[in-house]
């Protein structure tokens, strides 16, 4: 029996590296099943698969269908892909309608548990300009309110705009939402928590000493954990590394050229590493890992459901 229970609420299982394809080149077979199994063995039993555009959202839903009770999907268009609204055949209103219909249908079937990944990314304006990001963040927030799905959010360097657009919709979203892969300041984190949002922590959220100071201050009642695999792995060069000394061992990893079904792939983060995210958060906060895991699990289930019911929510 695994010691703790985890939900990886940010995992990009639609990425081609989980089909064995890296930078367009096939290195090994699809090993999603093994990736999930490795995670389940350490107690990570729920996966929320990120949808980042229409195609990926459909793919995430297909994975939720394939792994019932394990995988759940988010539906939405990422701020960096927001320009696809303007190039969509049929125009932006049609893509918004398609997304809304998809979210309604997938929610009804118990497959979609969040609307996202949506938000603002002012660090990468070269991918989609500010005006388009704002316009389609707002339009998609309206879809989330209509469909009544909690939000899966992305925010980079967009503090005030992000707050302004959310503040007007959150009163109509009782489950609020999660700002995933948080890398902002203490003030920003406190602003999000004051709005009722949860904060998602992964390896990228613990790269620097400043990051760790923020993590230390995230209230347990608003903390969720994720890996953001295949991205955001914890590296030896990160500030988090000094807290990993007595962390539980991870499954063995090899280079992709030497892949076999029982190993992780170097440089490809996966859900089984969530144990290290929880471990470091606990060390940084100076509390037992069990406390971090229990809080994060409860917060994720309360917000997204993921096919579970909390005792305090029992009918
Ligand atoms: Zn993101």
TrEMBL record:
Binding sites annotated in the UniProt record for a divalent metal cation 1: 117, 228
GO molecular function, one term: 3'-5'-DNA exonuclease activity
GO cellular component assignments: cytosol
Signal sequence annotation: none
Swiss-Prot/TrEMBL keywords: Hydrolase, Metal-binding, Nuclease
Matching Pfam families: TatD_DNase
Protein name, per record: Uncharacterized protein
Residue intervals passing through the bilayer: none
Entries under PROSITE patterns matching the protein: TATD_2
Binding site for a divalent metal cation 2: 154, 180
CDD domains, alphabetized: TatD_DNAse
InterPro entries found in the cross-reference section: DNase_TatD-rel_CS, Metal_Hydrolase, TatD-like, TatD-type_Hydrolase
Family in the record: Belongs to the metallo-dependent hydrolases superfamily. TatD-type hydrolase family.
Organism field: Lepraria neglecta
